[in-house]
Amino acid sequence: MISNSTLERISDLSKAINDQGKVAVPGADTALALLCNNTTITGFDAGDNIVEKIALESDNVVHNSMMDELVGTVSRAVCSHIDFAKNVVNPAIKEVVKYLGVHLDGYTAESVIDTRIERVSLPDFLLNTGIRNEIEGYSMSGVKKYIEPEGVLNLANIEMDKLPEAVSTGSGNLDVSIGTWLAGQEAGFLNEVYENFFADPKEHRRESVNMISYLNDYTHGYDRAIAIFLLARRIFSSGQSQRNVDFGSRLKQFLEVSSYKVADFIKVMEDAEKNDQIILSHDKVNKVIKVCSATYLPWLEKGNTPEVLYGAAIVGGNIFTSVKLAERKDELLKAWGVHRSALNSSYRNSYHNAYITALRDGFYKDMVNMPEAEAEYHAQNPNAKDEIAKLLEIELREVGLEDRNDHYRTVTRLVARARFFYTDVYKFLSTVDQLTKDGNTSLEEALHVATIEYVADYVSAQILIR
């Protein structure tokens, strides 16, 4: 029967409808209409207790039977929704979220800086007096430094793990420093140098390489020169230069060309430290700024930031020393700010397009293997996939930048509203999500509220105001 609390709660609504000169009636052929038809109240006399009379009028076998049937229908629908959401919808959501995680792994919250700062230091072994004297001696050979050495030395191949020994000096401290320098090179670096100029070409498949061009490489030139010098020095000191005249002459050329390049490196680094030069060079093609570690790190400790160097690379010109960087700091930061803004805009568009593509691809990928309940619906409704495709594109057009911050909520919306458009599961899930996202409402409480809202929607859909 109708309780006091029920009647009290609908009084304000009834009054509001009545004040507008309208009336609430059940929709034709609805469960509510059937219930109302079996709850007839003919009218009230003066002094009647309205609550008691309505309660008595609605307390009859037919009314209660109809009410029980209505409650049963709603209960079964709620249980079905929860079961469907748990066993069909939620697994689909998780699979699409997982797909996003894999295919968007390389993307970050904002664009990565497109310019890389590479710190350059003078290896300790190049400070050794004996090594320096050798380098200076070989590099003083006049125009020979510009003459390309002819051919290679045709030595036997050396296994990669034995190559560090081929550049050792026999001095413990020097060899530790050389080992530290080698550890900072890319894998296979020393093997590449050895095969290019020292090994017999018949033992490997590398094409011949011009040494001077090889050493003029912006990124690896100086390190390659050091490697050639150390390898040639070790071979020379072993007495192999006496093998034959051509071999000895070629080995000496290797030492001269490489020593000149190493000497140039030493001078560049020492001049940078002397002049408080921060930037050694910047390569606009490869987006690399090389800095002198000896001056760069103290410069940072004074409160300066890499963004100033990024700006210097954009502006160009001879803005390398700490003094010039300070003089034009505001200009450089402004240049970098404009560039970074453009970078971020481009990145956001790129990321958004990738995000939409991943959402779409992940969505359809998971639809390939439908669970039984879903497959059954599609078997009965062959046009469902067309409707889903249309709804998905509508939902994708509504995906904004902020939606990328929460994959789960975004995917839930797409999957529930497009793929399972024929259910009320989105309203159910979104209600639970809204109530639990702040952590103050338990899942059980949220499900209870979602159930109440579902019942309210179910009943209100059967009421007409006219």
Walk me through the structure:
The protein is mainly alpha-helical and 466 residues long. Among the domains are: 4-59, no CATH class; 120-276, no CATH class. Helix content is 63%, strand content 5%. The chain has helices at residues 4-19, 31-37, 50-57, 61-103, 129-139, 163-166, 172-183, 189-197, 211-215, 221-237, 245-274, 293-301, 306-315, 322-327, 329-367, 372-380, 384-397, 407-419, 425-436, 443-460; strands at 24-26, 116-120, 279-283, 288-292, 463-465. It has a 3-stranded mixed β-sheet with strand order 2-4-3. A two-stranded antiparallel ribbon has the order 1-5. Strand 3 (279-283) and strand 4 form a beta hairpin. Helix 8 (189-197) packs across helix 10 (221-237) and helix 10 (221-237) packs across helix 11 (245-274). The longest helix has 43 residues, at 61-103. It starts with a helix and ends with a strand.
How are the SSEs ordered, and which strands pair?
Elements: H1 4-19, E1 24-26, H2 31-37, H3 50-57, H4 61-103, E2 116-120, H5 129-139, H6 163-166, H7 172-183, H8 189-197, H9 211-215, H10 221-237, H11 245-274, E3 279-283, E4 288-292, H12 293-301, H13 306-315, H14 322-327, H15 329-367, H16 372-380, H17 384-397, H18 407-419, H19 425-436, H20 443-460, E5 463-465
Parallel strand pairs: 2-4
Antiparallel strand pairs: 1-5, 3-4
